[in-house]
Design goal:
Length: 143
């Protein structure tokens, strides 16, 4: 079963996908969003990717506050989850994404990626970290 991982932001959506066995997450792309209040193109691109990779489930990063409360971004993510479920008819799992962007930045710094080029990859890597965390939790449950 292949799973799609998403890091949903106001300007971009990072996308990752699991391997067919559901063991590892790989980066796919960053979807640029024209406006935060417009979702049609973003949803259409995610739908195309879901069909291309034969996705059965989506893991969506859930940006909770550090004190575990829901802020404005979390509320928008919940609305995006509902839009995804309506459009794609696939289950969408919310996954705690606290500090994934920080971790993604750290990965890029360690790889020597220059600051001006990090923005291009950080959302994809964050999506892969979100998805990998979910995949790891599934393998823990199986043990």
């Amino acid at each position: 079963m292949r799973i799609l991982g998403l890091d949903y932001g106001s300007k971009t959506v990072g996308v990752s996908v699991s391997d067919p066995l559901g063991i590892t997450a790989q980066t796919v792309e960053t979807i640029a969003r024209e406006r935060e209040d417009k979702l049609r193109r973003t949803l259409a691109r995610i739908e195309a990717l879901a069909e291309e990779y034969k996705i059965e489930r989506i893991v969506l990063g859930y940006p909770k506050n550090m004190n575990n409360t829901r802020g404005e971004r979390a509320v928008k993510t919940e609305a995006f989850k509902e839009a995804l479920e309506r459009r794609l008819g696939l289950p969408v799992v919310l996954w705690d994404e606290r500090l994934t962007t920080v971790a993604a930045e750290r990965v890029l710094i360690e790889q020597g990626v220059r600051r001006e080029h990090r923005k291009e990859s950080v959302d994809q890597i964050a999506a892969a970290l979100i998805l990998q965390g979910y995949l790891d939790s599934l393998s823990q449950e199986e043990r």
